Amino acid sequence: MRSRSPCSRARAWSASWAYCCGLSPLRLCDVNMRRSLPRRSDRLDGGQGMAESAQAAGRPGERGGATRLEAFVDAAFAFAVTLLVISVDAIPDSTAALVAALKSIPAFAACFAMIAMFWASHARWSRRHNRDGVADVVLSLTLVFTVLVYVYPLRLQFGVFFAWASGGWLPYPMAFDGTADVSFMFLVYGLAFASMSLCMAALYGQTWRNRGRLGLDAATRAEVVGELAIFGWFTAVATASVVAALTTPADDTSLRVGLPGMLYALLGLTGPVNLLAVRRAGAAAAVRRAPVAAAGVLVTGTDTGVGKSLCSVALLHALRAQGLRAVGMKPVAAGCEPTADGLRNEDAVALLQASAPRPSYADVNPWALPEPTAPQLAARAAGVRVELAPVLAAHARLAANADVVVVEGAGGWLSPLGDGIEHADLARALQLPVLLVVGLRLGCLSHARLSVQSIEADGCRLIGWVGSAVDPAFERRDDYLDLLRAALPAPCLGVLPHAPAADPALLASNLAPAASAIAGTR
Ligand SMILES: Nc1ncnc2c1ncn2[C@@H]1O[C@H](COP(=O)(O)OP(=O)(O)OP(=O)(O)O)[C@@H](O)[C@H]1O
Ligand SMILES: C[C@H](N)[C@H](N)CCCCCC(=O)O
Ligand SMILES: [Mg+2]
């Protein structure tokens, strides 16, 4: 949540000013954003620059290169600005004509700022939340359509405003025939402004609807509410102006001409409206979710069946040996048996039994899917859609009574946890570093390096890796460990020897360095 600084009022007013002038292309307040892995097929850079783009984006999880939709929207906005420029009638052929042309600059600049503000708003939404669903595409294209349709009315509106404000020194761009014409101009302008604002509000509405699946944290949710408040406020003010233009009595000239325009002064309250909404949403989230001081780690592997569960259970024992309250979690388990108590998964039961204090099964394993296959398939077979919201809630309950929560993934790093949900989404939503379990067998060098590349490209933090001797016949295991130590950018935090049917508690001492590193993240 944001802090309430003494200068927040000043910030609110400057925020209003910046938004209304279109000078705030990026967020006014900095909050960590978390979003899902970009779909590589959509990327114009062909996905080659994942690492660079994730770094260039500056925040973990932000999208780097542009999708085709983003490229189209950018091009359309650029075209709209071009329309403004070429609407200057002809090349001046005298000093007087040049001065007259220069006098159109204020209107052009204001209109440019307005269009730039909507472009920047869309770019900001797109980079952080866009999933290119049908609704996202339709709303984005509607925004483009509206901008292109209204580009000239916007220009005329601003031209008239500057002519009026300069007492006629700047030229009127159109002739007026009575107050009806002025009302009509406000009507068109108000409709344009309201339509564009409504499109942006609807895009953020989409983000809000999908907040669970996107795994947005409390701060990001509060920010989305803030953006909704901004564009909702814009829409309300423009609609009020339209209503005023339509309903003020025709015989009251000053009211008819003045009221629709004066109502736009209310845009000066945009900053306070935004801050109020963000604070209320942030406060509500804080009440729902008590601050969590627990440390944690997301255990992933170079593949399924490489020893993530063995490692996670042994890690719980190692953490407990350091005097910590350590609980395990298997958020999504594909492969559950029906029991008298409900569906039960082997990994989740082992994690639960190694946990102290003992949590409820439902919190350890919020998504218990019967079929032992990819979680997406298992979820479809069970007729459910995996979402992150129950996972976040269960994790918060576990963390409230623990010093450390060890979260085991499903399959490898790029095995989706559900439709549209990646391990990276989980790591970001829970703000967990990642521990990679490398199944020591022929081929693991490539699997380990690819996994590390992918974890880093997703903007997640690799705390280290653990070797697990899954293959008893693997003769070059020690040589491979040397190669892995040299090749991987994070430290080796333990090696589990080949120990079939071993009690994980006996392997805890092998993971003491891992336990210390994880406990140190508190
Ligand atoms: N170091 C080891 N020594 C002996 N057996 C091991 C070792 N590591 C893993 N195994 C065995 O390999 C099998 C798979 O291990 P485990 O269940 O820990 O894998 P996992 O990565 O958690 O798989 P999943 O993706 O299904 O969760 C188990 O039977 C386990 O006992
Ligand atoms: C069923 C299995 N033991 C795991 N629970 C799920 C493994 C999912 C692997 C998905 C993939 O192919 O990457
Ligand atoms: Mg497992």
UniProtKB/TrEMBL annotation:
GO function terms (MF aspect): ATP binding; dethiobiotin synthase activity; magnesium ion binding; potassium channel activity; protein homodimerization activity; proton channel activity
Gene3D superfamilies assigned to the protein according to its UniProt record, in alphabetical order: P-loop containing nucleotide triphosphate hydrolases (3.40.50.300)
SUPFAM superfamilies in the cross-refs: P-loop containing nucleoside triphosphate hydrolases
Catalytic activity as recorded in UniProt: K(+)(in) = K(+)(out); (7R,8S)-7,8-diammoniononanoate + CO2 + ATP = (4R,5S)-dethiobiotin + ADP + phosphate + 3 H(+)
Subcellular location: Cytoplasm; Membrane
Binding site for ATP: G305, V306, G307, K308, S309, L310, D347, E408, G409, A410, G411
Transmembrane segments: 71-91, 97-121, 133-152, 182-204, 224-246, 258-278
One CC-aspect GO term: cytosol
Record has Plastid as a keyword: no
Region (Disordered), start-end ranges: 40-63
Major location category of this protein: cytoplasm
Gene Ontology terms describing biological process: biotin biosynthetic process
Pfam families for the chain: AAA_26 (PF13500), TMEM175 (PF06736)
EC primary class: ligase
Pathway recorded for this protein: Cofactor biosynthesis; biotin biosynthesis; biotin from 7,8-diaminononanoate: step 1/2
CC cofactor: Mg(2+)
Active site: K330
Membrane disposition: Multi-pass membrane protein
Residues annotated to bind Mg(2+): S309, D347, E408
Presence of keyword Transcription: no
Entry-linked InterPro entries: DTB_synth_BioD, P-loop_NTPase, TMEM175-like
Entry's EC annotation: 6.3.3.3
Alphabetized UniProt keyword annotations: ATP-binding, Biotin biosynthesis, Cytoplasm, Ion channel, Ion transport, Ligase, Magnesium, Membrane, Metal-binding, Nucleotide-binding, Potassium, Potassium channel, Potassium transport, Transmembrane, Transmembrane helix, Transport
Similarity remark: Belongs to the TMEM175 family. Belongs to the dethiobiotin synthetase family.
Job description of the protein: Catalyzes a mechanistically unusual reaction, the ATP-dependent insertion of CO2 between the N7 and N8 nitrogen atoms of 7,8-diaminopelargonic acid (DAPA, also called 7,8-diammoniononanoate) to form a ureido ring.
Name of the protein in question: ATP-dependent dethiobiotin synthetase BioD
Lineage: Bacteria, Pseudomonadati, Pseudomonadota, Gammaproteobacteria, Lysobacterales
Gene: bioD
